[in-house]
Design a protein that fits this description.
This protein is mainly alpha-helical. It has one domain. It is about 80% helix and about 0% strand.
């Protein structure tokens, strides 16, 4: 699945998922913008710190994409059913994420709790990097924070797993991370205005419906292909008049 549509979809999912990113990472973005001493603070420096933090986060997403892409490549090489099954699973995960964003079903919260076990081991590293006053601290902190348990990331990782190779999977996750960048940068600089707008019920529901639409689009090809193959293997009975001759 190396088509530009998948990369574009990953970017848009990240962009729409900003309503979720606000809740997950908004707090640390605010902390970063206020961590710089007042006598050193400038708009350029704040922007640089926020950008490096987000680049570190996107780097971690890409690494996770490469790892899950390697697993997906291995699965698809071991059985021909793995590819279609992965796409259907990815579609279901995206639909679940949409339901989660809208507040209609919070099943992904259980998955985030499982990821929390890994986060408990990583989180102490992030505390040692605070407060962030240097560029390298922001970059490493972002790389650490990229492993925060997040249903949106997990859902997109399942989409990345269908790509067929680790390079493409890493690229899918990089596009997803770039999609989250505008909201995350605005959150750091215009936190209160962005948060109040993006957490409106209407915005959340619209974003959720579009992500659900991406989920349906993702799982449609293998389902339709399966129906087509089933129809070919079970042709309709002939109604030719010769069949009725005795």
């Amino acid at each position: 699945m190396n088509d530009p549509i998948t990369l574009t979809s990953a970017f848009i999912i990240g962009l729409l998922g900003g309503v979720h990113c606000i809740g997950m990472c908004g707090g640390i973005m605010n902390a970063l913008s206020f961590a710089i001493p007042a006598d050193q603070k400038s708009s350029t420096q704040v922007t640089s710190i926020l950008l490096l933090y987000n680049l570190g986060r996107i780097l971690s997403y890409s690494i996770a994409g490469a790892l899950i892409g390697s697993l997906g490549w291995w699965l698809q090489g071991s059985t021909p059913l793995a590819g279609p099954s992965l796409r259907i699973f990815a579609g279901l995960m995206l639909i679940a994420m949409g339901l989660y964003l809208a507040g209609w079903w919070r099943g992904l919260a259980m998955l985030e709790k499982l990821g929390g076990k890994l986060w408990q081991r990583i989180q102490p590293v992030s505390k040692k990097l605070m407060p962030v006053t240097r560029s390298w601290q922001a970059l490493i902190l972002g790389a650490v924070w990229g492993w925060l348990p997040c249903g949106l990331v997990y859902s997109t990782l399942t989409l990345a797993a269908t790509s067929g190779n680790w390079q493409q999977s890493a690229l899918v996750m990089a596009c997803f991370g770039l999609g989250t960048l505008p909201v995350m940068m605005l959150t750091g600089t215009f936190a209160h205005q962005v948060k109040s707008w993006i957490q409106k019920k209407t915005i959340r529901v619209l974003a959720a419906l579009m992500i659900i639409g991406f989920g349906i689009w993702t799982m449609a090809p293998p389902i339709l292909h399966g129906k087509h193959e089933h129809a070919q293997s079970h042709p309709p009975a002939s109604t030719n008049s010769h069949d009725h001759q005795h």
